[in-house]
Amino acid sequence: MIPVTVIDYKAGNLTSVVKALNYLGADVTVTDRAEEVKAASRVILPGVGHFAATSRLDETEVTDALREVIARGVPFLGICVGMQWLLSGSMEATGQPGLGYFQGWCERFPEGSEKVPHVGWDHILTRTTPASRLFAGVEQDEFVYYTHSYYVPTTILRNGLSQRPGENPIAASTNYIKTFAAAVEHENVMGVQFHPEKSSAAGLRVLKNFLEF
Amino acid sequence: MLTKRIIACLDVRSGRVVKGVQFLDLIDAGDPAELAKRHATAGADEIVLLDITATHEGRGTLLDTVRRTAKELFIPFTVGGGIRSAEEAAAVFDAGADKVSINSAAIAHPELIDAIGRSFGAQAVIVAIDARRVAGRPVNEAEVFVSGGRTRTGRRVTEWAHEAEARGAGEILLTSMDADGTRAGFDCELTAMVSEAVEIPVIASGGAGSAEHFAHVFQAGKAHAALAASIFHFGIADVRALKQELAQLGVAMRLPC
Hints:
The structure holds 2 protein chains of 2 kinds.
Chain A: E1 2-7, H1 15-23, E2 26-31, H2 34-38, E3 43-45, H3 55-59, H4 62-71, E4 76-79, H5 81-84, E5 89-90, E6 102-103, E7 105-108, E8 118-123, E9 125-126, E10 143-148, E11 150-151, E12 157-158, E13 170-176, E14 178-186, E15 189-192, H6 200-211
Parallel strand pairs in A: 1-2, 1-3, 3-4, 4-15, 5-7
Antiparallel strand pairs in A: 6-12, 7-11, 8-10, 9-13, 13-14, 14-15
Chain B: E1 5-13, E2 16-21, E3 25-30, H1 32-41, E4 46-51, H2 58-70, E5 77-80, H3 86-94, E6 99-102, H4 104-108, H5 111-120, E7 125-132, E8 143-146, E9 151-156, H6 157-166, E10 171-176, H7 188-197, E11 202-205, H8 211-219, E12 225-228, H9 239-248
Parallel strand pairs in B: 1-4, 1-12, 4-5, 5-6, 6-7, 7-10, 10-11, 11-12
Antiparallel strand pairs in B: 1-2, 2-3, 7-8, 8-9
Helix pairs in contact in B: 1-2, 8-9
């Protein structure tokens, strides 16, 4: 059984994520305590809801604990708001900083041409050079389930790196109104905008790849 | 490209899926967990479980049913029917639902929409609207009904859809009571009216009988998703066959391998 720590920051419902991880045979610990996060060997930061809810991570010192484990090489996966939190911040709550692991800001889809929020099953195009580890075994053009109004732009960067292959953190993209980051991946830090726990076989494969990372 | 969603709906009473024939006799259509899994395997994009158990003692059974159904379901799962408070919604989420659908309780206490949205996110709240046209009057005078369609509210459909959106509903599930059960097609005019009035996605319901009906409600009706119950039961039209036919009709579909 692969141990994985799921962070509870009292924003939304963790049942589906925990259920999918249990189904994949993981040994799941759900916590909101910094001490437990520091001891984690694999971390998932889920999230449905408002970016402002991540302020709780700062208050409980989980942010510092996460910065520490990420620096140590512990695999990290952010889901939805959990991925957005890896950026400098979000236009959804400009006063609340993100972790700043990637430089850039989450933006809101412009209204007009299509419905906002973006809800439903949409295609992903995954990175091929270098191949994404998170999407190993996932077909190109596979469908995943989204529900969000804010997105991570494909222009984000990791400290001092460029958009060249091998440095670009975008692991997959989707086009809805504009092309946005469906997933990011840099060393041990990963994030997905879609909900792998709700994306049928393709989503379970992404979670399994993370558990085996 | 964002695909149109096909949602399979299971009407559940006392832990069993039931199917109404001419709104009266309910026949047993099987185990909810088993049917949900079968629909998901066949390519359903979401599952909605509507509890039609009227009695209070049935609520415990519902949570158990939700738990069993959610256990091996890895697509979005909505539960509705009789949810009257944020606490009841929380129990349903805890049992494994991703979204709740609220109807009569939202009309009686609209602030319930805000309350559930605050705790679980707007994406988790579907406001279900049962709409009936007024005979001889234009579609924009269609009215909202509650309590399983038995009670008139006197509210107009678009006006209520607007309020639901403003309070933070993530989607609207629009059922045409006039079309429901007829298998003669969705009410595309009504669906388009609501879809044009709100920014959030609209799920069309009531009247599904053929693949052409779905194509029509996605195109002329501007629906983002469509829901059907009875046509999927007993294998009459399986989700896979329906989606293949829709793809051939030019509707963007997620086709399972």
